[in-house]
Target: IS6 family transposase
Amino acid sequence: MIEQNLFKWRHFQVDIILLCVRWYLRYTLSYRDLEEIMLERGLHVDHSTIYRWVQQYAPELEKRCRPYLKPTTDSWRVDETYVKIKKEWMYLYRAVDSEERPSTFG
Model:
């Protein structure tokens, strides 16, 4: 779908709609929490409006973002070691999924 058709005849700007939908999907916020956050920013958006936005735009966002996500599995193993970096001992954690794709964090 073309972006113009997705947001045609909307009262609010595209940025506001996408921000509310994104925050709802990413963080554990309720529709009423988002209503309050928008009110703090000077925008009166009813929680039922945000609900309708999520119902309409979340599937489209998911469809457009899905090709860019890295595939993962539900099974992970974590290795832990203690290494010296710049004369300071630090923990190094390495997560590996069931297909041996590593992810290092520490």
